[in-house]
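Reminder: ligand-aware prediction takes two inputs, not one.
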Amino acid sequence: MSQTVCLLPGDGIGPEVTGAARRVIDAAGADLQWIELDAGAGALERTGHLLPPATLDAIARHCVALKGPLTTPIGTGFASVNVQLRKTFDLYAAVRPVRSMPGIRTRFENVEIVVIRENTEGLYSGIEHEIVPGVVESLKIATRKGCERIARFAFNYAKERGRKKVTVFHKANIMKMSDGLFIECARRVHEEMGEGIEYQELIIDNGCMQLVQNPGQFDVLLLENLYGDVISDLCAGLVGGLGVVPGANFGDSCAIFEAVHGSAPTIAGQNIANPLAVIMSGVMMLRHLGLREPARRIKDAYNAVLTDGRAEELTRDIGGSAGTTEFAEAIIRRL
Ligand code: NAI
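Here is what comes back for the chain with NAI:
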């Protein structure tokens, strides 16, 4: 029986990379009904809403979406649509698997990290104000409920996938209360359900240095919101860049799958963006839907394209000369 999923093409390179992902997923034989929905800066121009009610209704009804990146203006302008979406559907856990990829040469060959990021609290709560002219305040929110549920999610994830170690990066030496609560909850959850899983805490500055020197020592990283955002991009840099790192945002009832990268406005509309991160996010979505066979076929197909390493089949960010569509077609040929 066919399953319905929402598709949010988004802004910038979003329509190109989600379009490519949809073609690959359909070609792999996944029996999906797609509902295309508007969101983001483009939607604001077209409909007067960053998140049109029809988009929110459809996600609430179908509970699964593949999403392109959404532009957020810097410094001024509207609040982040991504943050709004994550809050609306309480998508508290972002999962970003970061792996060394076949055929993509980087400094390291043994990266196999999963970044698990708390997605609804911290400094991204969006509570900011000017106290007096020239003095502004941004509040970092941490709740016991939020810290505990992301820690539980991380240890559950580690258990289900046979992962051996969970590392928390924090700054509880400075932010003794907020990051202090985060690690207190992580310790407690480890004691409660982390049998057989090593638990480690690192102050984030040291953690960053160790990540770029020896990423092979890390397995699951458990991070609060801002650290998770920054470290995801750092980890992407270890394995070939933002074009090859997928992601998923999970709540208790909904899941939205999206690449780690943004809308990359400088390369939008030129057929040069790498669609692989969204294709890989699509594979995560298929697994979530229980569609393991098309997920496996797509993974085998893109691994084959990467392993073959033909410049005319790979996008420029990973050493090739192909366009977005040519890369997607190369994957479809290997299915
Ligand atoms: P970005 O991720 O869009 O781009 C960073 C760099 O990576 C740029 O050089 C870009 O060309 C390159 N890049 C990104 N994706 C690529 C791909 N698929 N193929 C090849 N190269 C790629 O980050 P930036 O420039 O900081 O943000 C641009 C906009 O995206 C902002 O409005 C930001 O708020 C938004 N954004 C949205 C996200 C989302 O919707 N989940 C996540 C991150 C940023």
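Residues 144-160 form the longest helix (17 residues). The domain at 107-239 is CATH 3.40.718.10 (Isopropylmalate Dehydrogenase). We will return to this case in the review session.
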